[in-house]
Amino acid sequence: xxxxxxxxxxxxxxxxxxxxxxxxxxxxxxxxxxxxxxxxxxxxxxxxxxxxxxxxxxxxxxxxxxxxxxxxxxxxxxxxxxxxxxxxxxxxxxxxxxxxxxxxxxxxxxxxxxxxxxxxxxxxxx
Amino acid sequence: xxxxxxxxxxxxxxxxxxxxxxxxxxxxxxxxxxxxxxxxxxxxxxxxxxxxxxxxxxxxxxxxxxxxxxxxxxxxxxxxxxxxxxxxxxxxxxxxxxxxxxxxxxxxxxxxxxxxxxxxxxxxxxxxxxxxxxxxxxxxxxxxxxxxxxxxxxxxxxxxxxxxxxxxxxxxxxxxxxxxxxxxxxxxxxxxxxxxxxxxxxxxxxxxxxxxxxxxxxxxxxxxxxxxxxxxxxxxxxxxxxxxxxxxxxxxxxxxxxxxxxxxxxxxxxxxxxxxxxxxxxxxxxxxxxxxxxxxxxxxxxxxxxxxxxxxxxxxxxxxxxxxxxxxxxxxxxxxxxxxxxxxxxxxxxxxxxxxxxxxxxxxxxxxxxxxxxxxxxxxxxxxxxxxxxxxxxxxxxxxxxxxxxxxxxxxxxxxxxxxxxxxxxxxxxxxxxxxxxxxxxxxxxxxxxxxxxxxxxxxxxxxxxxxxxxxxxxxxxxxxxxxxxxxxxxxxxxxxx
Lengths: 126, 498
Fold this sequence. Notes:
Radius of gyration of chain A: 21 Å
Number of helices of chain B: 21
Number of strands of chain B: 2
Largest sheet of chain A: none
Distance between the termini of chain B: 41 Å
Largest sheet of chain B: 2 strands, antiparallel
Oligomer: heterodimer
Strand content of chain A: under 5%
Structural class of chain A: mainly alpha
Strand order of the largest sheet of chain B: 1-2
Mean pLDDT of chain A: 87
Order of helices and strands of chain B: HHHEEHHHHHHHHHHHHHHHHHH
Number of strands of chain A: 0
Shape of chain A: elongated
Largest interface: A-B, 30 and 24 residues
Strand content of chain B: under 5%
Shape of chain B: globular
Mean pLDDT of chain B: 89
């Protein structure tokens, strides 16, 4: 147990990523407010970004620019950070599109609650 | 000039549709021009895919490898046109062209003004480019980016219809699909942490050496990727978004979404499971059994839901859920014949489902009714549309001489070869259930008295598109030729990776 907790603390970026991922997924699945669902998705995606960036970080590593005086120095892996830049762009565009959809839904139903919208739709059907 | 185009063709098949997509809005008001451009681009695209496929067939299994920007494999992004990629490129381009033809002059009713229709075409081309990219790319992070492009354009295609229900379906789809792609990205992250590679081949070589050090991480990666792509390709318990999204989209979009988009994710999953993890690791973690079991549940569950549904498009959407089950089942069989069957069934289902959705869409827009029980006598008023619907239904049920038969036959042989009697029983039961939910539509359309209203077949481009697709159902069933050959070679190639 003690070893487990020690491992969790030493690898804190991963611990945080797992916690955030679970929180995000829980919000997405349980909340019926569309905005909250969107926030949950964003939290979830951020957790994955943290995991990637944490994977690239080396404790005590330098900025990954070759140092001519000390070429053997330890560098942080820049690739995951570069990848996550793309990931963040993707996540922003998803957010923008979802917000546009929420505006359209609010215009036609007058609410942003998924449960109320489902109820209204059922009434229309009957 | 020509040699430059030839040597860069693997990247052109991805870039041409993306590039044209962003030019289209500049003349959004001149719809005729937009439609002409889209159809000519799709034709060009089909020809380039056919050229690549012919090269791959002639080269006998040696893939065309293209390094983006001249950076070779472990560092740069690698495009690889092997048998699987050529096969899926042919399917994507071959379906996109008739669907674009069907959309010609037919969208204003469902989508709205000329500008909205032009935007619809932008999304169609974006989705096409992303799917072509998923077929040819050999880089895991590139797969994620293309998956996101495809997801966003799919959701926007659903929302293109001018109806609040479409927006609601699109939002639900967007949330679940983003959940799926986050899981996929997480899985890619685990593989990257373990191996330090993003190229699929290099990651595989590293993974089979180091997986024993941390089996739990490999297990997590596999689960994340399986569930992520499972949500995106609507494996049965995770299918909740599909019926709403596919039934509320405009007709050509439903055809593309049900026929192609879902399959693109399955091709990605296939690549991850067989190319990155390899069959030994899959067997190690018993994933192939989960795939077969999930497929069986999907076949039965999807068919039962389809039986219960009276809305025509929703019934077809649930039928897609059932047919996805066949693909997952075939993926888990792990022998050449089963995998060949799965790939061929993927192609034939793409043709059949787009034919079904397009003919159903024309029936719905001609009659103005959505439910099957109200479609009385449509067959007499719209002979061509209903004939196409009937041919496609026969294909989906799997009657010999139609394309679905060959795929199901190979799947059946594959399940018998792997000694899974239950799976073969479920394959046959799925066919029976499929007949049970499709034949009543045909009965109502042909054998009930026709209504008095003035209902006609759709216009010439629509008829042509429907007849091309119906012809393809026949041709694939009688002379499967190069498609089956490519599927066979792709299966052999995938199973060679240990």
